[in-house]
Amino acid sequence: EAQVTQNPRYLITVTGKKLTVTCSQNMNHEYMSWYRQDPGLGLRQIYYSMNVEVTDKGDVPEGYKVSRKEKRNFPLILESPSPNQTSLYFCASSDGANYGYTFGSGTRLTVV
Amino acid sequence: KQEVTQIPAALSVPEGENLVLNCSFTDSAIYNLQWFRQDPGKGLTSLLLIQSSQREQTSGRLNASLDKSSGRSTLYIAASQPGDSATYLCAVEYGNKLVFGAGTILRVKS
What we know:
The complex is a heterodimer.
Chain A: E1 4-7, E2 10-13, E3 19-25, E4 31-38, E5 42-51, E6 54-57, E7 65-66, E8 76-78, E9 87-94, E10 101-103, E11 107-111
Chain B: E1 4-7, E2 10-14, E3 19-25, E4 32-38, E5 44-51, E6 56-59, E7 62-67, E8 72-77, E9 86-94, E10 97-100, E11 104-109
């Protein structure tokens, strides 16, 4: 089954403790991206990647890092999480034009 | 600035009604437009993708149209069912990102 898999689904952590949210896709898509969803602000892009070793900032990149060492994986790294990064995070991949975006099931992150 | 607006913000209808959700966008230089469904606390499920060269797409009881020149898309849901209750999101693809509307919260009453 074609899918984007995120882990973990839920995470509660403390301020300053580094964490990584993993994302993997099995569709051989070159394009992958991360979004966060917040009440009243909707979905906003954090980072995206056009291919292996090619990443760029989205609209809200502050406090986040990403890497793309393999085509299928695109982890989101929070090196020093803060409470304002409490949010619902989604990873997505795309084939570029024909089938649109496929989203993962989301990771609900709470930073206390 | 690229903005996407969805109207209405919320909609409550009795089962069986046909309904229309509206989406408008400020920048007509789009690649694609995609409609998603989101259940509370869940992920995004793709409903329909309309490429910029297309005018409409259909899937079952759903029909989506696109008018690039006027910056509008509509999602038509025929014979609504309680299972259609969810938030419907319109997303416009510009280059390397999707710009989302705030969504329409739909409730279908049985």
